[in-house]
Amino acid sequence: MIHFLASSPNVALCECCGRYFIPKTKKKTLYCDRVIKDGKICKELAPVLKHKIHAENDVVIQAFDRTKHKMYRRYERAKDSLHKLPKGITYDKFYVWLDKATAARDAYLNDNLPAEEAMKIIDEQ
To answer: pTM for the full model?
Structure first.
């Protein structure tokens, strides 16, 4: 134990499970490699869980996720039969909207845009 402590190891606290671990690299590591659930490790599960928790408390993120899913489904349905569907959108229109909505969400999260303006941009279809 003394030899281990004398080597001054880089010890980090996992933000997912709360246990201490030794990172494999010198870069800042947020999550460990322990298996948590169904063969998945903290590195795989933590970002998804963190996003869900953040989205539960923020209406702009909820609206962004919901609208992104809706717009992507409109694109997917219209991919092969665009001329038949009245609400179908093209690949280009989807990604133009996605770029605008992502920029609005990021500006809102950085406190550069009020929630109402971000919601207008995100809901703009």
So the answer is: 0.69
Q: Within the chain, what is the greatest distance between any pair of CA atoms?
A: 73
The token duo for 106 is: 């990021």
Single-letter residue type at 57: N
For position 98, what pLDDT does the model report?
A: 94
Q: And the tokens for 32?
A: 């460990």
Q: What share of the chain is helix, strand, coil (3-state, %, to 5)?
A: 55, 5, 40
Query: Cα separations (Å) of 96 from 10, 43, 72?
Result: 44, 31, 12
- Number of other CB atoms surrounding residue 16 within 10 Å: 19
Residue type, 12: A
Kindly report, residue by residue over 56-105, the tens digit of the pLDDT. 889 999 999 999 999 998 888 877 775 666 777 888 888 999 999 999 99
Helix and strand tally (H, E) in the chain?
A: 5, 4
Task: Determine contact, residues 85/78, Cβ cutoff 8 Å.
Answer: yes
